[in-house]
Specification:
By secondary structure, the protein is α/β, with parallel strands linked by helices. The protein is built from 18 helices and 13 strands. The longest helix is centred in the middle third of the chain and has 20 residues.
Length: about 400
């Protein structure tokens, strides 16, 4: 089994609170992780019709059968249980790690948790593998990205294009499956099980078209009106469907950085996909070699780097502090890592050969900030790690 970075945080949470909820996209390895970490716990899957019926018809009786800690898998299928679990947690304040809950529908779980389990429950998110997990090495903290003393790893199992095209869903790597074949089934299951049956999206054909249109706009500012018009749906529907994609961990919205926090929420975000393998499938890219010649290569590479940083935060049990920056004149920095007292600008370039022009926007940012010695980083598609004009340059596999 490939070691998961989140395992340590999961154990710590179970020592502190009576309930731990692990959510994340379908097939990200949640069940495998909790059964490995809590191997002596009883395990119940709410996907089984008889267990689900028992829990729905007699929740007290269902919970009374457990005389010790238990894993309840895919618990969003039985949201009625949350209130009963709350009562048990209140009655037994000495409990820690009594209930481990997992589920794929983030918004359904969080809605139930906010209503019933607030203050009693730790909520963690497991994403598909990170590059560091696949390479069996320690991940680099995002805050260290501009630290020249951090050494970039040399070990890697795949080329850049193979890595991006394959994606990071565990099943592909565990069973050495062809990415296109597995992702086709995964995407169809997502549409039929999650979107139709759980999320109440009626027009599956239009929703599927909407997802592919989003893939074509990866790395761009999110224009809901344009998406709605191209898909033949209303602006309100487009807004709801973006929320569905984000809640089911298909897309990430990267918001603009402003000193005024309210503006971050109002201004248009940029759209990225959490998994580049799925993104390539939606863009109908059929091989790593084809990706090399596609116009979308830069956007796919950008999505790869941003998703790696996003997973890094999530697997440490932290909320991502990632933004982008753009001014009225069109100057732009791909990522701003907000450490509260320090902002770290990061540029992303898919080219394999470094060019001094890659640093222009970072130099503009430094000049604007009034601190030419400020930390900054560039991630590119090449092989070497070095420093230029006060900017730490890192290869793609350093993530």
């Amino acid at each position: 089994m490939i070691k998961r970075i989140l395992a340590l945080r999961l154990k710590r949470a179970a020592r502190q609170l009576p309930i731990v909820t692990l959510t994340g996209p379908r097939q990200s390895g949640k069940t495998t992780l909790v059964r490995a970490v809590f191997g002596d716990y009883r395990y119940i899957s709410m996907e089984l019709p008889d267990q689900r019926e028992f829990a729905l018809n007699d929740p007290r009786g269902f919970l009374d059968q457990f005389d010790g800690p238990v894993i309840l898998d895919e618990v969003q299928r039985t949201p009625e249980l949350f209130s009963y679990i709350q009562v048990l947690a209140d009655e037994h304040r000495e409990w820690t790690g009594r209930f481990i809950l997992t589920g794929s529908q983030n918004f359904l779980l969080l809605q139930s948790i906010s209503q019933s389990l607030a203050g009693r429950c730790a909520v963690l998110h497991l994403m598909p593998f990170s590059l560091a997990e696949l390479e069996d090495r320690k991940s680099m903290a995002p805050e260290s990205i501009a630290n020249a003393r951090v050494r970039s790893p040399k070990k890697r199992r795949r080329t850049l294009l193979e890595t991006i095209f394959t994606g990071f869903y565990p099943r592909i790597h565990d069973r050495r499956l062809k990415p296109g074949d597995w992702l086709a089934g995964y995407y169809q299951t997502y549409l039929e099980r999650d979107v139709r049956n759980v999320l109440n999206v009626g027009d599956i054909e239009s929703f599927g078209r909407f997802v592919r249109l989003c893939a074509g706009r990866c790395g761009q500012l999110l224009n809901l009106s344009g998406l709605a018009s191209d898909c033949g749906i209303s602006h309100t529907t487009a807004k709801r469907w973006i929320s569905v994609l984000e809640a089911s961990f298909i897309v990430i919205q990267l918001r603009p950085h402003h000193k005024n926090f309210g503006k971050r929420l109002i201004k248009s975000p940029k759209l990225y996909f959490l998994d580049t393998g799925l993104l390539c499938y939606l863009l109908q890219i059929h091989s790593p070699q084809e990706l090399l010649h596609r116009a979308e290569r830069g956007a796919v590479f950008e999505s790869f780097i941003i998703s790696e940083l996003y997973k890094n935060y999530m697997h440490r049990g932290e909320q991502p502090r990632l933004y982008f920056w753009r001014d009225a004149a069109g100057h732009e920095v791909d990522i701003i890592i907000d450490r509260g007292d320090v902002l770290i600008p990061v540029e992303i370039k898919s080219a394999q050969t470094f060019s001094s022009g890659f640093l222009d926007n970072l130099m503009y940012w430094k000049n604007l900030s009034g601190d030419m010695e400020a930390s900054a980083a560039l991630i590119y598609g090449g092989e070497e790690s070095f420093r230029r004009a006060g900017v730490v340059v890192r290869p793609w596999f350093a993530m």
